[in-house]
Structure formats: C-alpha cells, structure tokens
Amino acid sequence: MSEHAVIAVEHLGKVYSGGFEALKDVSLDIRRGEIFALLGPNGAGKTTLISVICGLVNPTSGRVLVDGHDNVSDFRAARERIGLVPQELTNEAFVTVWDTVSFSRGLFGKPKDPAHIERVLRSLSLWEKRRNRLITLSGGMKRRVLIAKALAHEPEILFLDEPTAGVDVELRRDMWEVVRELRNSGVTIILTTHYIEEAEEMADRIGVIRRGELVLVEEKRALMRKLGRKELTLHLHSPLSDVPDTLAHHDLALADDGHALVYRYDASRTDADEDDDTANIAGLLADLEAAGIHFKDLHTRQSSLEEIFVSLVKERQ
Predict the structure, then answer these.
(1) Which GO terms describe its molecular function (predicted)?
(2) Is the pLDDT at 266 greater than 70, yes or no?
(3) Is 165 in the same domain as 257?
(4) How far is it, in rounded angstroms, from Cα 153 to Cα 229?
(5) What CATH code is carried by the domain that includes residue 259?
(6) How many CA atoms within 13 Å lie on the side-chain side of 139?
(7) SS3 category, 14
(8) How confident is the model at residue 161 (pLDDT cuts 50, 70, 90)?
(9) What is the pTM of this model?
C-alpha cells in the first residue's frame, strides 16, 4: 500500500458458487483525495469490485486495505471510513428526508449531530425538503438523498455506483458539481459509470474493467494524450498503391483502397502543441505537393474517450 493510497486492493479474486469468475487478480491503489472513475460495460465486474471493497461481498482471494485496515479482519474500522451510494433507494417511501439521513448516521454508532446532518442536507440542496417524505421526491432528489445517507457518518471515502443512471442531462451536471465539491472538501470519490462523458468530465484517473480484469489504470489526461488521436484524412484525386518513401517520416496510412491518406497525430490540447501540429501539417502538405500527390478534399476528427474505451475493450476480447 503506497503512502498516498487510501484504498489498496491486492490480487483480488471472486468466484461465485456457480463457478462464475467475477474478478480476476485485481490490484489497485486509490489515492487519497482523488476522483477515480471505474469504467466498464454491464457485467464487467464494477459493482462486484465495489461490493468487495465495501465489505458487502467476501473475496475468494486477495485482500483490501481501507486506510490501512483490512476490510475482513477489521471490518468495522474499514467500513466506517466508507460511504456507499447504491443505484436504488430501498423501501423507505414514507420516511422523511431528515429521519432517513439521521438513521444512517446511527447505523454506524455515531452520536447524534444535527448540525452535521444540516450541513449535508444544505450542501445537497435538500434542506428545504428535510420534512418531506421520500415518496414525494423527484428521482433526482431521491438520488441526492442517497448521497446524503452515505455522508451522514462523515466517511473519508465515497463510492458512487452509477450515480447518474436514468437522470436527465441537467441533473447529471448538477450531480457532477456536487461530487466536485465533495472532493474539494477532502473526500475521496470512486464512481462506476458507463457514461463515458461522466468519466471524461470529472475523473482524475480512470480504470477500465473488462470481464473481471482491470485492463488499464491511467491518469485521464495521460490516457487522452496517449490513446486519443487526431486524424487528418486527405481524399486523393488518384489512388496510391503504397505510401511513397519520401513521405515515410510522416505517420501516414492508406485507406479507402488507396483513395485516401490518413495522417495521425497526438490529441494534445495545449496551444504550443497545436502550433506544432499546424507546422507538421504544413510540412506534410508541402511534401505531398513535392511528391506530386494531389487531394480533392480533407477533413479532421479527434477521437473521444468513448472511442478509446471501445478500442480497449475490443483489443481484449
């Protein structure tokens, strides 16, 4: 466990009774104070991994340390540091917002602290709804109540399992703002999502899980820089059978049966790099002119995190 890690997952495996292997030798450090997004298709193992870390499911092999506490042998100390926001509310329809959040604090043996409950409810724009029964709330407000319940016992770590599944875009952006504010207050956030833009918008680091295997963990910016690519496609007047040697120093590939040349370059976003890109493209066009290669049209595109994710998943199928 590194000194900066608040959670250390060590060689975790989970095999269910029917023989299904849900997690395969997963190792992962979550850094204190970061937003970590766990990406993966449905059935990839996201919820199982969270459930094991939170102590709700026992692993078949490996272990989890939460702030140095083994989450099996020292379950209470590990679990009280964690807040878990599940995907769905349980059947508490006729309980008020205040009562359900206060009750969650009591579950962890914490003394009553109305001032803390008020701070949580105000931070989530729930204060005006504190006397409302859950059955009267909108879907978005119910989702906020789930977060309030998870924060009631003052955890250092907050797990959000698909936090914005089924909510509209405007509410999703509100939720992102809430999560950022929580991180700014010192809470470590781990979220699972299949919304690529959610990870792209919020995460400091991204992990990709596929069929129970953690196939990649990377800083978001480094991931975009390393795997995100820009493409310039040149549609040629006359097809080529291969790329001429005089153009070999450019990253070029033939496409469309030789009717197009594709030039790939890094999807970096700094002004200085964009200036370099412009110079490189100008050099490429000059070299094409010198080689007598003429084009009738060109267009550029930049890969999104979604395309990166899809390509990663395909690679490992």
Answers:
(1) ATP binding; ATP hydrolysis activity
(2) no
(3) no
(4) 44
(5) 3.30.70
(6) 12
(7) strand
(8) confident
(9) 0.73
Specify the pLDDT at position 109.
Answer: 87
Same domain, 99 and 34: yes
Domain end among 196, 224, 252: 224
**Residue 123: CB partners within 8 Å, gap ≥ 6?**
178, 181
**Domain presence at residue 48:** yes
Let me know how long the chain is: 317
Nearest to 187 by CA among 277, 124, 272: 124
Residues 21 and 144 in one domain: yes
- The torsion angles phi and psi of 267, rounded to 5 degrees, stand at -90, 60
Task: Please provide the distance, in angstroms rounded to a whole number, between the alpha carbons at the two ends of the chain.
Answer: 31
Residue 233: phi and psi, rounded to 5, are -105, 125
Other CB atoms within a 10 A radius of the CB of residue 282 amount to: 10
Tell me how far apart the alpha carbons of residues 52 and 63 are, in angstroms, rounded to a whole number. Answer: 9
- Pair 264, 230: CB distance under 8 Å: yes
Domain final residue, candidates 224, 245, 272: 224
Q: What is the CATH number of the domain that holds 112?
A: 3.40.50.300
Tell me the C-alpha distance between 251 and 269, whole Å. Answer: 19
pLDDT in tens, 114-126: 999 999 999 888 9
* 212 and 251 co-located in one domain: no
Q: For residue 100, give its domain range.
A: 5-224
